[in-house]
Amino acid sequence: MAIHNYDVVVIGTGPAGESAAINAAKHGKRVAVVEKQPILGGNCTHWGTIPSKALRHQVKQIMQFNTNRMFRDIGEPRWFSFPRVMERSRITIDQQVEMRTKFYARNRIDLFSGVARFKDEHTLLVRDRQEALEELVAQKIIIATGSRPYRPADINFRHPRIYDSDSVLSLSHTPRTLIIFGAGVIGCEYASIFSGLGVKVDLINSRDRLLSFLDDEISDALSYHLRKHGVLIRHNEEYERVEGDESGVVVYLKSGKKLRADAFLWANGRTGNTDELGLENIGLEANGRGQLQVDDHYRTAIPHIYAAGDVIGWPSLASAAYDQGLNACDELLERDYRFVNEVPTGIYTIPEISSFGRTERELTEAKVPYEVAQAFFKDTARAQITGDTVGMLKILFHQDTLEIYGIHCFGDQASEIVHIGQAIMQQKGEANTLKYFVNTTFNYPTMAEAYRVAAQNGLNRVF
């Protein structure tokens, strides 16, 4: 068995693992990464962020074609199957893998394909698909193994019509009807995608409203537009059992209802990928969701072993994972670092949602005297040109000081638009003010111009 010595070994090549490994290599460390899958990129590239967002983009284009009157001059509305749309999305995945493979080669990072398991606190055993073993000895180790869909034991995921958010990407047909259990971010995104393809969707939510962490007005707008596209939302429901047969799936709810559809998608929770790491050999223990606890330096209970990304839980976003991996590496390199605790929300429904900061509910409960500034996309020239007139930008600010507390956006390019407000909110003292948006010239016509319109609307409310 070959033995290799490194300064840093990173387990996982998703956003957290990639940023940590490249950061260490650029600062002169000898680095190795271990990836369980035969190709790089982690869950983000192959099952999560990239495929679902690429899929969403293709569906959005189909919806635009089928609803744009100009295209009726060249043909009738078209129907596309799920496998065909997914095939087009795989081009993006292949591009991502090729690009990321070059990153590792350029930075002379050694790649090991296989499952990593702790032998002791400084040693990993890597077993490849041919059962060959290699031993990696490292001064520092970063666990960035990501997460996978949580699968309850009483649901038969081997049934050909029962899927989770990973296996649904290999769906070989287009169901006419679909039941999605779980109305979190993933469930809402897939409800948008499938309804955009003409599938009748039942979205089952165990809570009393969609995405309750959002501003109430934005959550209500999402509910309205999902329903507008044919999604039937069922709140405050729990499943009793799920039974699949040759022609479909029946879901029995604890409320006494029973639903039938061609297919069933489980989208309720995720589990950290820690079960194969051999944590018992080093005295580390994951929580009930398979996640590792870290301090604000991204250190586990063993100081030279770090963890970042979905494997540590909140916020479970690719954007945050990248920054967590980068800063975990900065800490072990004894460089300046930050603990990632403020990130914008990006939800790629159709239309998409993004927010940063506090909601109206939070400010009201804290008795903060805030005011609302808003702009509706239907009133902006750029949205009228593109036809993406659904949505709004909302800015929450202090009535007296004009300090900005929250940015909430619903509509086309929301995940891009939010960053302008985020940048101003991050400024210190009086630099964070609503006045910035009326004292700054924005390109016209743009979606970003909504900030100027909203700011003027808000200032009109102040007396």
UniProtKB/TrEMBL annotation:
E.C. numbers: 1.6.1.1
Cofactor: how and how many bound: Binds 1 FAD per subunit.
UniProtKB keywords: Cytoplasm, FAD, Flavoprotein, NAD, NADP, Oxidoreductase
Superkingdom to which the source organism belongs: Bacteria
Catalytic activity: NAD(+) + NADPH = NADH + NADP(+)
Location, primary (coarse class): cytoplasm
Cofactor(s) needed: FAD
Keyword NADP tagged: yes
Record's keyword annotation contains Oxidoreductase: yes
Cell location: Cytoplasm
FAD/NAD(P)-binding domain: residues covered: 6-325
GO terms, molecular function: NAD(P)+ transhydrogenase (Si-specific) activity
Record-listed FAD binding positions: E35, K36, Q37, P38, I39, L40, G41, G42, N43, C44
Domain Pyridine nucleotide-disulphide oxidoreductase dimerisation span(s) in chain numbering: 343-454
Record's function text: Conversion of NADPH, generated by peripheral catabolic pathways, to NADH, which can enter the respiratory chain for energy generation.
Family according to the record: Belongs to the class-I pyridine nucleotide-disulfide oxidoreductase family.
NCBIfam families the UniProt entry points to: PRK05249.1
Protein's name in the database: Soluble pyridine nucleotide transhydrogenase
